[in-house]
Amino acid sequence: MRVIAGLYRGRSLASAPGLGVRPTSDRLRETLFNILSPVIEGARFLDLCAGTGAVGIEALSRGAGHVTFVEESGIAYAFIIRNLAAVRVEEAATIIKRDVRSALRSLDLSGEKFDIIFFDPPYSSDLYSPVMNFISKSGLIAQNGVVIVEHRTNTEPENDYHGLSAFRRKKQGNSKLSFYSREETLSSE
User: Fold this and answer.
1) What CATH number is attached to the domain comprising 63?
2) What pLDDT does 29 receive?
3) Does residue 81 lie within any of the structural domains?
4) Strands, sheet with 164-172, edge to edge from the N-terminal-most edge strand
């Protein structure tokens, strides 16, 4: 696994086979960041269920101002630390070792806002609806912010979560990215 483009292009990122983490493929990350290129510069990026941190590190490489990584697994958490050190971007990152729901509650209570939220739970997870519902009702999304959900092609999340509406879906192999924003953002574009 490697950083695809930007400041840290070509740098290797560590991962362990059998870790129970399904890294976002290079092609899907490339697709994701091609779509996000107009809004990534200086963005506050939240990487939920971050795994080895590849998506968040790619965001930093492409100009994000700060990335907050949320990962519950101790092994994956250690890989995020290792990968951030390898790329030398620790100062632009916060890592939270917690389950995604309690991390979101804590971030919301502290008044955090993010321009981009990337959510990639295990495909068989039951987290999709509860997390998306919480995000939609919280103050975590900055004005004009976007939430991206990675999921299996054949199991799409809902089109709307309390005013957080899907506006784009992009398929890549067996995976798909669903992009969401607030209805008022969509109506002003």
Assistant:
1) 3.40.50.150
2) 84
3) yes
4) 93-96, 66-70, 44-48, 114-119, 141-152, 175-182, 164-172, 160-161
